Amino acid sequence: MTDHEEYFEQLRRRKLAGLWYRDLWLYPRIRRHLGGSVLDIGCGIGDFVRHRPHTIGVDVNPQAVAFCQSRGLPVQLMQPDRLPFADGEFEGTVLDNVLEHLEHPEPLLAEIHRVLRVRGGLVVGVPGARGFDSDPDHKRHYPEGALVGTIRSAGFQLAGIFHQPFRSRRLDRHFRYYAIYGVFRRI
């Protein structure tokens, strides 16, 4: 089984409670920070694309893309660090649980900057310490300061931070699904 096939199968084994959590709690929080046309990078099996109208997804995993397309979702295959869209095409971008998988995020962040309109929104979610340690494919850990510094250096301005389910050092260390979300604007 290839890495893409294995990861696709992992995504499809999600629990119903996880889907409810995303649909009823997480995605409404993310949506508040986005308007207009949105690009979901690393969309996986298309949960956010399905949830939010006017959203297009991209992923490097051909199995995930084929799955989404079979469900009628507007999802395209992307090459690593290359987005198949025109300059300034989107008003918002989501990068949810993707950044930590990249050893060198700068090329992808430059592409996001290119396809996002000036003052466009970027929402980036990364796992907390426990979540980071739970996946051997994770390459870089982003505590809050590192997340902000990395995205700022790519030409974005911090607009806010929120934690899922809420800010807690204890959850950061012990709860696998704890996450930090940064909201940024393209400058």
Write the layout of secondary structure elements.
Blueprint: H1 3-12, H2 16-31, E1 38-41, H3 47-51, E2 55-59, H4 62-70, E3 75-77, E4 90-96, H5 106-115, E5 116-127, H6 129-133, H7 144-152, E6 156-164, H8 169-174, E7 179-186
Parallel strand pairs: 1-2, 1-4, 2-3, 4-5
Antiparallel strand pairs: 5-7, 6-7
Tally of alpha and pi helices: 8
* Total discrete domains: 1
Q: List the uncertain runs.
A: none
Please report the first level of CATH classification, the CATH class. Alpha Beta
- Alpha-carbon distance between the termini? 42 Å
Query: Helix and strand succession?
Result: HHEHEHEEHEHHEHE
The CATH homologous superfamily is called: Vaccinia Virus protein VP39
Assign the structural class, choosing from mainly alpha, mainly beta, alpha/beta, alpha+beta, or little secondary structure.
Answer: alpha/beta
What is the CATH architecture term?
Answer: 3-Layer(aba) Sandwich
Residue share in helices?
25-40%
Number of strands: 7
Beta strand %: 25-35%
Largest sheet: 7 strands, mixed
Please, what is the average pLDDT? Answer: 93
How would you sum up this structure in a few lines?
This protein has 187 residues and is α/β, with parallel strands linked by helices. It is built from eight helices and seven strands.
What structural keywords apply?
7-stranded mixed sheet, 187 residues, alpha/beta, single chain, globular, Rossmann fold
3D structure, described in words:
The chain has eight helices and seven strands. With 187 residues, the chain is an alpha/beta fold. It has a single domain, classed as Vaccinia Virus protein VP39 (Rossmann fold, 3-Layer(aba) Sandwich), CATH 3.40.50.150. A seven-stranded mixed sheet has the order 3-2-1-4-5-7-6, with helices on both faces. The longest helix has 16 residues, at 16-31.
